[in-house]
Every structure is written in structure tokens, then in C-alpha cells.
Amino acid sequence: MLKREKLFLTIIGILLICNILSYSKISSLEERMGLFDSMQNEISNVNYSVQDLSSQIDMKLNEFMQNQLWIQKKEYQITNVNIAANKIDVVMEWSLKELNEGENISLLYREKTEGKWSELEVTKDNGLNYVVQHSFPLNGNYETQVVATSNEGERSESLVDLFFKEQLDQRIQTNAFVHQSGDGQLNVTIDINNTFKNELLSGVDIHDLKMKSAKAQLIFDEKLMKEWDLLINHEGLHYGSDSYSESINFTELLDVTEEVGNKMGNVKLLVKVKDGLGFTFDTEGSSEGTFSW
To answer: Is 288's pLDDT higher than 90?
Structure first.
């Protein structure tokens, strides 16, 4: 056999051995990949089981905590709102877990900012179910509690919080900013959003909930520097596609070189919005405080 033929056969043999080794490694790798996929599936199953167990534990814990409460069920409903009289009629209902012999039930309420509690007459509906109807001033936030008194003592538990004033105050949201943009320049940005959807005002004409005036003032060292009427002088009033909101987006780069010169002073941005009901929403914008050029 010629040397060339021997060399050719040797090369073929080497290639065959390499192919066999490569196939073996590929097979081993495929087995490992299959094992890896299997492990991933197992990990996913374990993770799902842990999440399901955690949800069950949370549910059982919530049930346990609920069962420990003296007041088992509680809710309130708004039955009428009278803007002109500044009154809101509310019905509060609750159910007790138990009541000891000789205990009398009463409901106390007070404004969040006050310390003195006032008592309301309670009506026993059926069994351990109770109901109270009361008219509150609309421009207040209230907390309530159920109290049981007897010769043995007294116990109480919080019922519901009634954030009427807070809901009204937060209906129109204003974000206002003023910052120094360069030598003698101030950048003023004002965004106002008004949402008409509100459980307290569901029976009010939507036109009365719209903005009737929106004004802004720029104050430098307690002196008026610039004033804007955002409704009259600005075309940025937009209505939401659902017809239940409106917004104003205002921005202006203001050159105050002539008014201020090289003075150092404190800058404030004040925004006042009023709706058709006569409610006023005042906002002091965010600023860097003292400006200097």
C-alpha cells in the first residue's frame, strides 16, 4: 500500500473518531439540556406551589384577623348632598360579633382636627346589626367609633372615616413650578386637572363643576411681578375624551431682567382656581426659593 493511501486512510480514521467523539458530546449535551429543561419545569412548579401556598396563608390570616374584630361588617352610603346648605346625608351600618349582657351601644363622631366626640342615636336593625342616619357639614373630615358601655366598663372600635372635605379639595389638582432658566429668565409651568366624577357631587350639573376662573401670580420679594388669566389668555384648556375631565397646560419663559436687574430675592408662584359651585382651590407652586442673577 502506498504511503499516500495509508495517509488517506489515517486521516479518514481520525475524522471518524472525531465524529464519534463529537456525537457523544452532542448526545451528552442534549441529555443535559433535557435535564435542565426538566429542572426548570420543576422549579416553575415549586414556585407556583409556593405562591399558591402564600395566597392561601394570606387568605387564612385575613379571615383569622377579620374574625378577631368586634365589628364584623361596616359600610356607609351617601343618600343626599346639598351644596347650598353645606350638608351631606349619610347612612352608616355595621354588624357586631357579640354583645355582652348589659352593654349599651352608641356611635361617636368628631372632626379630624377636633378632640371632642359627639354622640349619635343608634337604631338596632336586627340581631347585632345597627344603623345610624346623620347629616354632616360637607366641608369637614370625620372619624367615627362604636362604643359599648356597661357597669363593667367601656370598649370601642373604629367604624368608618368620612373624608368629605378632602375629596372636595382634591377634585381639582394643580402642579405649578418656577425655576431659574438663565440670566434674568424664569421658566413657569402650570398644569391643572379637573375631574368631574365625584361621589359627593354625582347629582350636580356638570357645568357647575367646570373651572370658571384660573389665575396665577408670580411674586418677587412679596411684590407682584406678573399675573396670568389662564382661561382668558391661554388656549391650553382641554377636555378629556370621556367628557368628565378638563385640564390646563401652561408654560412660559419669562425675561425679568428689567424688573429685577441684579437683585437677589425670593420668588413665589401662586395659582387660584374657582369652579361653578364657588369652591376655590389655592396652590403655591414649587420653586427654588431665593433667585439671584
So the answer is: no
